[in-house]
Amino acid sequence: MESQDLRKAGLKVTHPRMRILEILEASQSRHMTAEDIYKQLLSHEEDIGLATVYRVLTQFETAGLVTKHNFEGGQAVFELDRGKHHDHMIDIESGRVIEFVNEEIERLQREIADKHGYVLEEHSLVLYVRPKKKTGK
Amino acid sequence: MESQDLRKAGLKVTHPRMRILEILEASQSRHMTAEDIYKQLLSHEEDIGLATVYRVLTQFETAGLVTKHNFEGGQAVFELDRGKHHDHMIDIESGRVIEFVNEEIERLQREIADKHGYVLEEHSLVLYVRPKKKTGK
DNA sequence: CTCAATGCAAATTATTTGCAATCTT
DNA sequence: AAGATTGCAAATAATTTGCATTGAG
User: Fold this and answer.
1) CA distance A52 to chain B (A)
2) What is the pLDDT of residues B56-85, one digit of tens each?
3) Which residues from chain A sit within 8 angstroms of residue B108, using beta carbons?
4) Could you state, in order of their start, the residue ranges of all structural domains in chain B?
5) Domain A84-132 belongs to what architecture?
6) Over 60: is that where the pLDDT of A136 sits?
7) In this structure, are residues B53 and B66 in contact, taking their beta carbons and an 8 Å threshold?
8) Cβ–Cβ of A112/B127 closer than 8 Å?
9) A1-82: what fold?
10) What do we know about how this protein assembles, alone or with others (chains A, B) (predicted)?
């Protein structure tokens, strides 16, 4: 099935590319570093190099299959592009990534760019949050 | 004058720290990489190592004197904290960084975090924009 | 004088690249 | 078979760290 996604993206259907796509689709967290993916491959006895993981992810990004995020310093994380745009919220205590969509914010962003004489091409919005203290209920 | 800023931040007043503060204050662009600052120092015949620049910037960040941004991959940029919070817009054609403030977006962000059971601690919003095509006026 | 701060070189971390061997079509 | 793709090792880029020396209070 996903071999079609690759062909559609103009990429040859190779074993490494298929494996990496599958891992991204199966991933619970939805946001993985190249290293995460590489370790998954290793644990599945796959013989794919880390350099290939990086190369494939870059190709996927160019092809629009994947989005790359540079959250707080360290490694970049990659996320399979499932069509619907969204922004991210990161729980700084657990590291968990939560997705959200807010049309109002999207609209305001376009408006701001416009007011300054620009057209909005891309944006990156990340909220760093902390769980609310439970009130003694 | 700025020696007070350093003392207030609990940092010893040393030559490298003063120089770096001054460069940040004098900088036209307001957003400099460690390398940028290092080169400025070199051109002023200062004998300060790049490692020190990084160390000092990190201390400044911890002390709240400076904010560090990880815009699109590559080097981090540092900006002197002049009190008023703002977000950034980057002209992808010229690389220019434009600052803006929008209370409505700030409010929506707090609201979104709240709705998910979190408190907003920090956020990062960057708009990547392109100049509007001039209409043939 | 005492300990924090610095310079320099070496170490790390994340990612990229060269190239010969290996697949896809 | 022809050219794209991969693995591995070596190369980069950005930032950090160890340690002997210097400097601030």
Assistant:
1) 20
2) 999 999 999 999 999 886 899 999 998 889
3) 102, 104-105, 108
4) 1-82, 84-132
5) 2-Layer Sandwich (3.30)
6) no
7) no
8) yes
9) Arc Repressor Mutant, subunit A (1.10.10)
10) Homodimer.
